[in-house]
Amino acid sequence: MDELDSAIVRELQRDARQSNRDIARKVGVAPSTSLERIRLLRERGVIRGYHADIAPSALNRGVQALVSVQVRPLSRTVIDNFKTFAGGLPEVLSVFVMAGSDDFVIHVSAQDNEHLHAFLVDQLSQRKEIVGWRTSIIFQHLAKHDPAPLPGT
Amino acid sequence: MDELDSAIVRELQRDARQSNRDIARKVGVAPSTSLERIRLLRERGVIRGYHADIAPSALNRGVQALVSVQVRPLSRTVIDNFKTFAGGLPEVLSVFVMAGSDDFVIHVSAQDNEHLHAFLVDQLSQRKEIVGWRTSIIFQHLAKHDPAPLPGT
DNA sequence: TGAGTTGCCGAACGTTATTCGGCAACTGGG
DNA sequence: CCCAGTTGCCGAATAACGTTCGGCAACTCA
Q1: Which long-range contacts (CB under 8 A, 24 or more apart) does A59-63 make?
Q2: Alpha-carbon distance B119 to B131, whole Å?
Q3: Angle of helix A31-43 versus helix A3-14 axis, rounded to 10
Q4: Which residues of A fall within a CB distance of 8 Å from B116?
Q5: Chain A nearest CA to B6, separation (Å)
Q6: Chain A: residue whose CA lies nearest to B84
Q7: Which of A96, A122, A140 to mutate to test the interface with B (most CBs of B within 10 A)?
């Protein structure tokens, strides 16, 4: 991860669909060089993939929420099972496994409040390991897909 | 947003860096057709961008947390200002504006616990509109960049 | 019914991805 | 100090791709 790798990564975070030649030009190397760097970054697991950012409303996901979930007992089996279960649900965008009073925070989206409610009641209330949950509606979600580098690094 | 658009969007969510020809072949149209569809999807704001998914540890962001924040007064000015402020911090990955007892949930990352603590103390505690906050460490984060379509849509 | 419109196709052409041989700059042992 | 090995970058060559555009078929609506 030298300065060249960082510059390439930054460019791919900013726009993953620009041509390799454009990236090479912006970071100041030959296209063959940046291509090889990108190949190595993928191989090393630094680059995990490239994904389109889609407007949720276009996917019939007009309402979003964060659901804090507590499960019991707090065993590895229960935690892993619940994580896998939640991750497999189509309404689930993201699963956070947490320290603290909540064991999970689940970012979910649905067509409207009615569908969200149905999802929570039908899916979550069936799971016996859940001993409590709390749902908070998201009004806005600002996601930074190309965060500025941390200071002092 | 017909079935062809959806198929193209799905492919770009799965791998935003595959060639237009590959996408066209997978969704069963000519390359010129899928190219035009993609252009229109961008124009309509359905596709908002393409971003590389980078392993956090490679960016010196080994520790992540969710910070629930309460601000006062609950005026539009205060909320918008805080959202802009938080979104501008390099440690912040994502800002959720919430309904419920917490006004914001901020997804942050830092090099280690020490840097995280310094960030919270130095940045958040300076803001007079904050009347309370709670930090929860994230053990694991499972993000689905290409969620399955919602059932019944 | 027929003129207008829309959306897709396929060919053409300029651009890009990908490979690979070579070269220069480093590295470590003698 | 020297030199053999290694590493990383470059530039040329070719296959693949992006992009444009004329044409055609299917739909729309009067």
Answers
A1: A59/B9, A59/B149, A59/B150, A60/A111, A60/B150, A60/B153, A61/A109, A61/A110, A61/A111, A61/B150, A62/A110, A62/A111, A62/A112, A63/A109, A63/A110, A63/A111, A63/A112, A63/A113, A63/A115, A63/A116, A63/A137, A63/A138
A2: 17
A3: 90
A4: none
A5: 8
A6: A142
A7: A96
Residue pLDDT, tens place only, B17-59: 999 999 999 999 999 999 999 999 999 999 999 999 999 999 9
The yes-or-no verdict on residue B153 having pLDDT over 80 is no
Mean pLDDT of all residues belonging to chain B: 97
Which nucleotide lies at the shortest CA–C1' distance from A33? Answer: D9
Of the candidates A127, A114, B53, B85, the residue with the CA atom closest to the CA atom of residue A106: A127
Please tell me which of the candidates B90, B136, B149 has its beta carbon nearest to residue A98: B136
B9, B66, B90: residue with CB nearest A96? B66
Contacts of A68 in chain B (CB under 8 A): none
| Mean pLDDT computed over every residue of chain A | 97
Strand partners, A68: A105, A134
> Which two three-digit tokens encode residue B136?
């929860």
Tokens of B55: 């392993």
Check B48 against A53: CB less than 8 A apart: yes
Distances (CA, A) of A15 to A36, A116, A138, B41, B106: 18, 32, 27, 16, 24
Q: What is chain B's alpha carbon radius of gyration, rounded to the nearest angstrom?
A: 20
Instruction: List, for residues A60-116, the tens digit of each pLDDT value.
Output: 999 999 999 999 999 999 999 999 999 999 999 999 999 999 999 999 999 999 999
B55-88 burial, b if ≥16 CB within 10 A, otherwise e? Answer: ebebbbbebbbbbbbbbeeeeeebbeebbebbee
pLDDT band for position B152 (cuts 50, 70, 90): confident
